[in-house]
Amino acid sequence: MAAARAAKEPAVTEAVEGVPLPDPDAVRELAHSPAQARVRGHMQRLAENPEAIPQVILLEGGSASDRLSMALFWTALLHCRGPEPAAEPAQMSMLGAMAPVPEAEPEPEERPCLTCTSCMQALTGANRDLYLLDGREEMIKIDAVREVRSVLGEPPRDHPVRVIILAELHNSRIETANALLKSLEEPRPGNSFVLLAPQRERLLPTLVSRSFVLTLAWPHGEDVQSASDDGETTARLAEGFAVFLETGKGWFSITGGKGAVSRNIGLGFCNALERAILAVLTDRAGSDRLAGALASRLDPQALRGLDIAVDQAAQALGMQVNPALTLDWLATRAVSLARDTTLRKRMG
Ligand SMILES: [Zn+2]
After folding, report:
1. How far is the CA of 72 from the centre of ligand 1 (A)?
2. How far is the CA of 232 from the centre of ligand 1 (A)?
3. How far apart are the C-alpha atoms of 239 and 267, rounded to whole Å?
4. Contact by Cβ (8 Å): 61, 230
5. Which superkingdom (predicted)?
6. From the CA of 225, how far away is ligand 1's center (Å)?
7. CA 130, 185, 182 angle in degrees (round to 5)?
8. What is the spatial distance between Cα 5 and Cα 125, in angstroms, rounded to a whole number?
9. Which of 25, 171, 308, 340 has an alpha carbon 20 to 30 Å from 67's alpha carbon atom?
10. What angle do CA 307, 311, 313 make, to 5 degrees?
11. Ligand 1 geometric centre to CA of 189 (Å)
């Protein structure tokens, strides 16, 4: 399999032998799917200025394979050199006026091309500047983190930035996360860490606070059945939340059934709500039902208040607080913020 085989030098990537990376075609398809346009756009903007690349990105949401695919996409984005010209323009252009003009650097939004050698090396893991610490089937070992730490001070080998992916980091022991934290304490330019986990709440808060968090769209289709069932419930909650915000009615009958809301569904809904808040604050509510309700009832101050409440709710869910009660609290909080908004409007 293509699993990082050619990356012989960094011993840590040997850990992925036998567990295949996502197929490059699947990465291409996911990376260009409309559902992931938001994350893709964020990544492209983040990569525009190599000096300003976040030290740590946390990719949450989606399926495990989606997260790894987008992490490989990020690697390709940082390593892409653009489509290779057919001839050898550098030499030929020295020969005179008839020479083809060397291809221009691709525009940021066209990166990564996902076809050039650098992109292919990123997608197949055959890359000396890509470290994959793979927690998909086994926990990431603390030794692997220490080994990566030992190379952080060295410049990357073939590209401007070294990428260190920690896949499904939430499956690892707390010591491993702590070792990682130590690696992040002293900023090392030229290194980009990518942490993958279903939800940020499943990682140490100290790791999350150091991360630029990007939330992938939820998986759909029969890809992950339980996730798609959860997605359906999340959609019902979103609709109910919108109605409750507008009319003050109907919410408790949704969450009231015994076991109607699981912890995962609660976290999924928190993610959806957070995305909707972000969409409204950045003027991209579009036709989204939940975002539309938020936009009509909450002013920016209230939206920020709700954002904090969502964070608190997600933390409570992480600490095993009853999911239905947590979401009820969140919905009530939203209605109260809507009232504050109305009062502020009346007072001009
Ligand atoms: Zn490329």
Report:
1. 12
2. 37
3. 16
4. no
5. Bacteria
6. 34
7. 75
8. 7
9. 308
10. 115
11. 22
